[in-house]
Amino acid sequence: MTAPGPNAILAVDKLAVVYQRAITALEGISLSVAPGQIVGILGSNGAGKSTLLRAISGFHGLDDARITEGSIHFLGQPITGAEPHVSTRAGIVLVPERGKVFANLTVAENLLVPVAAGIGRAEQRRREALIYEFFPRLAPLRQRTAGLLSGGERQMLAIAAALVCQPKLLLVDELSLGLAPVVVADLLQRLVAIRSALALTLVIVEQNAALSLGVIDHGYILENGRIVLDGSAARLAEHPDVAEFYLGQSASGQRRSYRDVKQYRRNRRWYG
Question: How many helices (H) and strands (E) does the chain have?
Answer without folding.
Answer: 9, 10
